[in-house]
What we know:
- By secondary structure, the chain is of the alpha/beta class.
- The chain has two domains: 20-49 and 161-335, Rossmann fold (3-Layer(aba) Sandwich), CATH 3.40.50; 51-159, Rossmann fold.
- Helices cover 45% and strands 16% of the residues.
- It is built from 13 helices and ten strands.
- The strands form two sheets. It has a six-stranded mixed β-sheet. A four-stranded parallel β-sheet has the order 5-4-3-6, sandwiched between helices.
- Helix 7 (163-182) crosses helix 8 (198-210), helix 8 crosses helix 9 and helix 10 (269-282) packs across helix 11 (291-303).
- The termini are far apart.
- The model has no long low-confidence stretch (mean pLDDT 97).
Amino acid sequence: xxxxxxxxxxxxxxxxxxxxxxxxxxxxxxxxxxxxxxxxxxxxxxxxxxxxxxxxxxxxxxxxxxxxxxxxxxxxxxxxxxxxxxxxxxxxxxxxxxxxxxxxxxxxxxxxxxxxxxxxxxxxxxxxxxxxxxxxxxxxxxxxxxxxxxxxxxxxxxxxxxxxxxxxxxxxxxxxxxxxxxxxxxxxxxxxxxxxxxxxxxxxxxxxxxxxxxxxxxxxxxxxxxxxxxxxxxxxxxxxxxxxxxxxxxxxxxxxxxxxxxxxxxxxxxxxxxxxxxxxxxxxxxxxxxxxxxxxxxxxxxxxxxxxxxxxxxxxxxxxxxxxxxxxxxxxxxxxxxxxx
Length: 341
């Protein structure tokens, strides 16, 4: 299936389509429904992840406008920042990452490994800030420097989630619907995380444009459900306006913050158990910020009967494995594993 997005500039960064895979022995271990895993962790550029789909449109638009410098934002272990840095490296663009200490984590693993190391490998200029006030000051300084040097800047928001970035998951909706059609699966529930909101907004809008009546369950991993719903609704409407269509209905969409825990970037025991269960039954690694929390929510919904055993479920794996290594000490403690001598 295809949607009419050709009028919007796009650069090829992802290996598409990403696989839609069976989930090994996961379903039988939880006595639950058939679960398919949409492997958007395998988009390739910058170690993969969902942000690459957004960046295809964001950077396509940037290049069309003569941009040579990209500034974007995130937490210390930002997946979006890492993928932006890699995409900019591939396209020959300067990348400025303005990172804020918004997660209560510290130590060498969190501050020097995972995405932080990859940011530097991909050539990004990393600016670490202690709070939002410093973030704003650094951003204004970077804009002044760019202007004085005659550089043309594009600023991407957190997660690449703006009306242009949303188009990445409008296109992904068509890809996923086509793969399910090839399998003969029509009635399906899609489970997806929501932080900055662009991935969920794109799927909702794409499903409407396709006339695809899937159900979408959104695991809110950084904000309570009402806030997440407001963000996604606004983004979907803005992206719809960009395409010249009406905003989508949300009657088939559910938001839930059952796995939010203490907040963004803070996994609890249920999240670590979900990461271990999925890893030990599928051979697929999740991360503790996005996909792990989404898996914990999905398992909760299955065990509570909110997702029935006779349903078809698609779990959207948004990537993030590099960030897992930033949580290594916490993960070993939570899982209680001892290495045998």
